Amino acid sequence: MNRILLLLVALCSISVAQAQSVTSAGPDLVINTNGRFVVSTADGKSSFRIGGRLMYDYTLAEQNDVVDEDGLDIRRARLYAEFKTGNWEYKAQFNIGNGNGGTPEDLYIRYTALPGGWTATLGHQNEPFGLNLLTSSKDISMLERAAATEAYAFGRSDGLLFTRSSGNTTLAAGVFEDDASRNTFAFTGRATQAFNLSNGSLAHIGAAYSSRGADVTNTGLELAWAGGPVHLQAEHFWSDDAGADLSGYYLQAGYFLTGESLPYSRGIFGRVKPNQASGAWEVVVRFESGDGDYGDIELGTTDATAFGLGLNYYLGENLRFGISYTQGEDNTNNDSGSEWRARAQFAF
Questions:
Q1: For the whole model, what pTM was predicted?
Q2: Choice between 199 and 100, residue whose per-residue pLDDT is larger
């Protein structure tokens, strides 16, 4: 599959470079290469898109002032293809690097014309749980997601998801395979509401819930605000895991030094578009505490407190350079951990 996708990209590039015109047996075609590669019919009823991302990181991580990690690494390398025709969509996204080539990320079929404005998606996809998780990894302001998100949000699973977006309201609910070996399932849902405020800013509130098997439930509450160059977000998660009560949260703030605003649509934040050819600069800070997965700073899954600071430079829509520093302390044994991370990212 990976070789086929790469061949398609190469053939399309050669055809566009050599041909003076493009013809088709059906409606006229429109080719969009403005930061992406999309071929669609002029009537908008069908389209084909190729995309991907490459994140190349340098990481220096320490525990109790002893270096545990020091080196370069491919954080993510993915290619995807999306097909749309009428009310049907199909997406296939695979990892292509870092020793996990061929691993599927997204692999689903979607029908977009159910009664009441609902959409049904069947296949391997993200469970609807958490603002930080559902914002794409190429668009999150800190280079890595919060420890609470890593611990309580579930990422991708096989299942059937129903979603509806109407105005500033989104609803999502689905059933997913939780543990194939035990034939157990998870029921996960999320609802969000955005409010357009009089000063031109936007406020967001959301809640998510997941019941997994017979003895695990997770709940999440999310708040966000964006106005002008400032954006804020926070999430608090609770979990009842076979009688063990766990919780964790984070608070995050970002500011665009060059005046951009963070885009928002359908319950998540999107990718910033620089206002000028010289690019956009963003600073971001994050505080997190409670039970979570603090593996990035070498503390593992524990109760800890951490503080992070990041700087991002966006050169157009496709290229991003970022650096972040996070340090924290385990609240149970006073172990300390820290991480420097620098990233070069290309996404299209």
A1: 0.88
A2: 199
